[in-house]
């Protein structure tokens, strides 16, 4: 028989939880609430397997499965749950799992049933609001939350759900007000404060969000904090790219963004887990550097990225492409734009940028094809719906931009007439569009109409005095119109404000060149088959100009050397001159005193005027003592001549010009020559790199004597047609190489002689550099007629113009 002590021990053991009685649903729930969900589920799974019809066990099992995040298993069991009879906690658990799985219809159904049965249980209105928000019905969810507020006024959990719904609906300002209200009521609410920070970030006020997060350093996870720093810097970079209120401080925000990026980089580099955010900050810094025009730094840092395995996003590629183009490396920019378009084929801005890059590369065929395709692809109108649901149409801004750029493309290709036609139509539709106004004014300037261009720039500036490109165009028109005081003031002000702007830099360079000295030289050697003009001729001419004096004046020295071989002997002629040039709006004047050496010394002089009536009409006039047109053979015979010229020119545009010139020469041997010359020049074909012009020349003269040693027909007349072919072979920004071929055919008639044909050809090379240097050299061969006899002339020539 056992002792009483042993029986007592055994009795205690039989009733102990671990030995005699297994855990029940209540103990399992308690385990789950204490975080021991694995143990709790093991108990409940056994209980449910033993008695699947036990509703208490089933409901507890379903609930703990939901707590453990086993939503798929909950979905398998949910059909066994009765929404009409199941307890509220089980309904809420099943609804929460359905919501997490994305089965929003099921979740909404369960929350609504629970709300009907348990109106005082806040889990159901909160869950319903959150479910609708997750389902993409943020506005409806927020409205529903407002309705629930009437039944549960001031309930924090419902306000949190309302804020969540407002965020989901994109109404971040309303969400911020909700979280602000929660924080005001309960400053210790960590969740409300955290959401307040994140909503501020979503609104672009990342700097405020960062400041608030620094005051509450334990609210955000490390990843959230790192992302917040990145967003703060990214928004700062974007703000730096916006037009400023004060142009003198246009880089202030970008400089702050760069300082912020540097500070963030220093912080992120100390955190091994922040590698991704550190890389993002470096990429954002490239954009900020582009905005600050530190293009060399952008390129050097970009070119180091592949070594670190970084693949830049498209917005960074775009910034780097801008840097390459700014540094006049369009080939590299093109590669980046093509990479962007491979990722985003419909990127409108990338296609526009690629167009400008192709223009810089002189690839006009591809540039035209791209911009015309982009223009055609844009619909003129965009269809939208108003807040009342009505159908609305509004102009498509991308269509306007593409059409304007397609027009400007023709300017780049020297097809100014087509550009003007397109821009005029666009300007009529959008007269307040300042970009179109600017481009139209630029076309007027390119067509040789500086007054019209100036009026158009001023018209645009009447709408916006701060428009930089219009100001730049107006300053350029001042320079072209010889309004030098206004030009100087405008250019200096623009360069002080925008020294990084390429257009302003070019304008400043034009002003610098205007203020330089100038050297003009020409030389030629001609061999003739007869002696009328001399068997050999040489000519050297030059003029050296000072820089501008008192704005409108330039002093100059000139020199001329001529040589010809005649049967009666060689003739050498030298002339030296000093003069002054005067330039002002609508008028140019030159006064020169000369000293002529021709077997003896004789002074001379010249006075020339050019009056420009408007953009089309101009009237030149010259009076010269000891005229430079005096034939060398006359000088050989000690005969000199004075001359007077009067002309009129009508220049319709760069495509057509008509001129007429009358000259009278009074020779010292009693001969008096009258001549009249007319010329019509018409552009026949204009392509981006090629121009074909037709030139018709008429000339007639009459002399009072015909017994002179120099060629002096009693009366003659000539008519000639020339085809002038100008082809640009190469252009690399301000360095241009072209060649020209001119072919001439005509007829010459001289009194008392039979008429005969004229023919000739000229070929030349043209080198231009930086608007400061031009070198032309070439060769021509002509057939002319003198006294009924043909003469063949071979002429080698060169010309130089240099600003220094």
Describe the structure.
With 804 residues, this protein is an alpha+beta fold. The protein is 47% helix and 28% strand. The strands form 2 sheets. The protein has a 16-stranded antiparallel beta barrel. A two-stranded antiparallel sheet has the order 1-2. Helix 8 runs parallel beside helix 10 (156-168), helix 14 packs antiparallel against helix 15 and helix 23 (416-429) packs antiparallel against helix 24 (434-446).
Keywords:
elongated; 47% helix; 804 residues
Give the structure's gist in a few sentences.
By secondary structure, the chain is of the alpha+beta class.
pLDDT under 50 segments (min length 5)? 1-21
Q: How many angstroms does the end-to-end distance come to?
A: 131 Å
What is the structural class? alpha+beta
- Estimate the strand proportion: 25-35%
Shape: elongated
Largest sheet: spatial strand order: 3-4-5-6-7-8-9-10-11-12-13-14-15-16-17-18
Total DSSP helices: 29
Task: Describe the main β-sheet briefly.
Answer: 16 strands, antiparallel, barrel
SSE blueprint:
Layout: H1 4-15, H2 25-33, H3 37-50, H4 55-67, H5 71-77, H6 88-101, H7 104-117, H8 123-134, H9 138-151, H10 156-168, H11 172-185, H12 190-202, H13 206-215, H14 222-240, H15 252-268, H16 275-291, H17 295-302, H18 314-326, H19 330-343, H20 348-360, H21 364-377, E1 381-385, E2 391-395, H22 397-412, H23 416-429, H24 434-446, H25 450-463, H26 468-480, H27 484-497, H28 502-514, E3 518-528, E4 536-545, E5 553-566, E6 569-584, E7 587-597, E8 601-612, E9 617-625, H29 632-636, E10 641-653, E11 656-667, E12 672-687, E13 690-703, E14 715-732, E15 735-750, E16 756-769, E17 773-786, E18 789-803
Antiparallel strand pairs: 1-2, 3-4, 3-18, 4-5, 5-6, 6-7, 7-8, 8-9, 9-10, 10-11, 11-12, 12-13, 13-14, 14-15, 15-16, 16-17, 17-18
């Amino acid at each position: 028989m056992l002792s009483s002590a042993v029986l007592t021990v055994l009795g205690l053991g039989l009733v102990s939880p671990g030995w005699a009685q297994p855990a029940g649903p209540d103990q399992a729930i308690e385990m789950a609430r204490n975080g021991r969900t694995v143990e709790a589920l093991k108990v409940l799974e056994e209980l449910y397997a033993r008695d699947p019809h036990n509703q208490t066990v089933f409901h507890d099992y379903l609930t703990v499965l939901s707590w453990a995040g086993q939503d798929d298993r909950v979905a398998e069991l949910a059909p066994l749950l009765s929404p009409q009879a199941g307890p509220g906690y089980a309904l809420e658990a099943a609804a929460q799992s359905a919501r997490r799985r994305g089965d929003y219809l099921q979740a909404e159904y369960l929350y609504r049933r629970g709300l009907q049965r348990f109106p005082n249980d806040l889990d159901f209105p909160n869950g319903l609001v959150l479910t609708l928000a997750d389902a993409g019905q943020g506005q409806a969810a927020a409205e529903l939350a407002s309705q629930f507020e009437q039944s549960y006024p001031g309930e924090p959990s419902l306000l949190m759900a309302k804020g969540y719904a407002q965020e989901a609906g994109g109404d971040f300002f309303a969400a911020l007000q909700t979280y602000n209200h929660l924080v005001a009521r309960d400053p210790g609410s960590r969740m409300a404060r955290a959401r307040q920070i994140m909503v501020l970030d979503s609104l672009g006020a990342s700097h405020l969000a960062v400041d608030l997060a620094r005051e509450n350093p334990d609210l955000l996870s490390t990843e959230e904090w790192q992302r917040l720093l990145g967003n703060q810097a990214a928004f700062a970079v974007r703000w730096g790219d916006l037009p400023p209120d004060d142009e003198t401080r246009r880089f202030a925000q970008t400089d702050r963004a760069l300082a912020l990026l540097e500070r963030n980089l220093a912080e992120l580099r100390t955190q091994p887990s922040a590698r991704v955010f550190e890389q993002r900050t470096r990429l954002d810094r490239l954009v900020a550097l582009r905005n600050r025009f530190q293009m060399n730094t952008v390129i050097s840092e970009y070119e180091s990225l592949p070594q670190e395995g970084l693949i830049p996003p498209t917005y960074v590629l775009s910034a780097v492409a801008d840097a390459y183009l700014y540094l006049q490396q369009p080939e590299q920019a093109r590669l980046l734009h093509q990479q962007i378009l491979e990722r985003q084929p419909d990127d409108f801005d990338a296609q526009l940028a690629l167009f400008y890059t192709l223009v810089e590369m002189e690839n006009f065929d591809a540039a035209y094809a791209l911009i015309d395709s982009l223009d055609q692809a844009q619909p003129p109108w965009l269809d939208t719906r108003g807040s009342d649901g009505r159908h609305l149409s509004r102009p498509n801004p991308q269509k306007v931009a593409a059409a304007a750029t397609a027009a400007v493309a023709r300017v780049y290709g020297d097809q100014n007439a087509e550009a003007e036609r397109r821009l005029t139509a666009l300007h009529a539709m959008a007269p307040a569009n300042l970009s179109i106004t600017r481009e139209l004014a630029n076309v007027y300037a390119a067509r040789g109409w500086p007054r019209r261009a100036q009026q158009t720039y001023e018209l645009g500036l009447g709408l916006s005095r701060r428009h930089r490109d219009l100001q730049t165009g107006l300053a350029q028109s001042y320079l072209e119109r010889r309004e030098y005081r206004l030009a100087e003031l405008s250019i200096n002000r623009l360069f002080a404000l925008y020294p990084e702007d390429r257009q302003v830099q070019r304008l400043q360079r034009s002003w610098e060149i205007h203020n330089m000295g100038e050297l003009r030289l020409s030389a030629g050697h001609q061999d003739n088959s007869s002696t009328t003009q001399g068997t050999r001729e040489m000519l050297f001419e030059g003029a050296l100009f000072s820089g501008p004096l008192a704005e409108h004046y330039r002093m100059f020295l000139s020199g001329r050397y001529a040589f010809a071989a005649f049967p009666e002997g060689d003739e050498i002629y030298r002339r030296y001159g000093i003069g002054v040039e005067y330039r002002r709006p609508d008028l140019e004047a030159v006064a020169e005193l000369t000293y002529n050496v021709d077997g003896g010394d004789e002074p001379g002089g010249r006075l020339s005027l050019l009056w420009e009536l408007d953009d089309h009409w101009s009237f030149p006039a010259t009076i010269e003592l000891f005229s430079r047109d005096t034939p060398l053979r006359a000088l050989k015979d000690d005969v000199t001549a004075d001359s007077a010229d009067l002309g009129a020119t009508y220049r319709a545009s760069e495509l057509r010009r008509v001129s007429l010139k009358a000259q009278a020469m009074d020779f010292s041997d009693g001969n008096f020559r009258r001549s009249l010359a007319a010329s019509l020049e018409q552009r026949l074909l204009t392509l981006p790199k090629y121009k074909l012009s037709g030139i018709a020349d008429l000339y007639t003269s009459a002399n009072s004597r015909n017994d002179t040693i120099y060629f002096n027909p009693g009366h003659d007349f000539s008519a000639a047609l020339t085809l002038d072919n100008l082809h640009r072979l190469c252009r690399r920004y301000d360095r241009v190489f072209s060649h020209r071929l001119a072919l001439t055919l005509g007829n010459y008639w001289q009194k008392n002689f039979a008429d005969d044909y004229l023919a000739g050809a000229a070929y030349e090379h043209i080198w231009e550099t930086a608007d400061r240097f031009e070198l032309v050299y070439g060769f021509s061969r002509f057939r002319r007629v003198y006294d009924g006899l043909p003469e063949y002339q071979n002429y080698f020539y060169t010309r130089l113009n240099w600003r220094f």
